[in-house]
Amino acid sequence: MVLVAPVQQAQANPKYAGIVIDANTGKTLYEYRADNTRYPASLTKMMTVYMMFEAMEQGKLRPNTPIRVSSHAASMVPSKLGIRVGGTITAEAAIKALITKSANDVAAAVAEHLGGTESNFAQMMTRRARQLGMSSTTFRNASGLPNSGQVTTARDMARLGIALQEHFPRQFELFTTRSFTYAGVTHRNHNRLLGRIKGVDGIKTGYIRASGFNLVTSVNTGGRSIVAVVMGGRTGASRNAQMEKLIGEYLHKASRRDRGPLVARNGRASFAIKGASIASIPLDRLPVPSVTRPVGSSGGAPVVAYAPEPKPAAPVDPITTASAPDRSGWVIQIAALETEGQAVAFLRNAQNRAAGVLGNREPYVEQFVKGGVTYHRARFAGFASKSQAWGACSALESYNYSCLAYQN
């Protein structure tokens, strides 16, 4: 059962909205006005950082890539680093500046670097939000500065917090950064719960007058994992107090059982964090026709031969479909294609290009039906744990493969 009644003080605040999600299962432990429209303020920078992490994995950014500050970026109002027009900041420093100082000038500079213009980058952010299942979120800028069209919900922000952890487990550690020094000035993280509450490892604060004080918090301790959102606090202190109460009340109710990834990278989220009956719905559980075929082999070993890399119909199948009952454990998927031949060629090419990652894994093709059309998933089995599977996905992204890991 999901409790929906907030503490009386928060309930009396018309801007308040909150949610607590079990990040191991996707179950909603608590919600209040979680689907009501709110202004994200600097929670926006969670998506800006997500886009930077993704650009790094794709090779479009490196930690030392210089990001130039334009006159537009330099004109942003505080909070800001105050970099002069024409100055630069490295991508790694920019990420830390966004996480700790919540620097608006840096956010705009990043947007222009990756999107050409900030407005174009905001469209990119919105498209990515939709692909992550954030159906109620629209971005108009990269910083969260006031814009009546820049809206979200507590539920969408929780989904983004989970996506950051699942998709970028190594980079996510940057959200634990307590302070950041730039040009001789040390900036302390605005998230005062870091180091004060056991298990808190991020994520982001936010404030504009229209939104009130916002906070998304990740907690990981004792095998339990939650992401909690508080929006619309009257003060930073009251927001933090409400978050602390939510953590205290709901962390111990979270499961220690990790049921696998919850948010797909390239399409609809693999679970819906909504409503009292919500629980994680692993990929591939709906009863539609399915058949699996092993990739051709020679002498019992998978054939590893070069084939021209086909263009996938969808880099990772974003829909819920039937599972392969004869394969248990962790599996990764790198494409969903129109024909079996394309899927086989795609798997062989992946084995050839990334032999160190996939050489001893079992490639197979799984057929599924969507809207009366048959597609073919390109998958590898044989991963003993979530960390192994997601580690393989992370390694494959350096070869420009999209990848989704899940547990049968």
TrEMBL record:
UniProt family annotation: Belongs to the peptidase S11 family.
Binding positions for substrate per the UniProt entry: K204
Domain SPOR: start-end pairs: 324-408
Coiled coil residues, start to end: none
Active site residues per record: S42, K45, S102
GO molecular function, one term: peptidoglycan binding
Annotated signal peptide: none
Protein name: D-alanyl-D-alanine carboxypeptidase
Keyword Aminoacyl-tRNA synthetase: no
Keywords attached to this entry: Carboxypeptidase, Cell shape, Cell wall biogenesis/degradation, Hydrolase, Peptidoglycan synthesis, Protease, Signal
GO BP: cell wall organization; peptidoglycan biosynthetic process; proteolysis; regulation of cell shape
Source domain of life: Bacteria
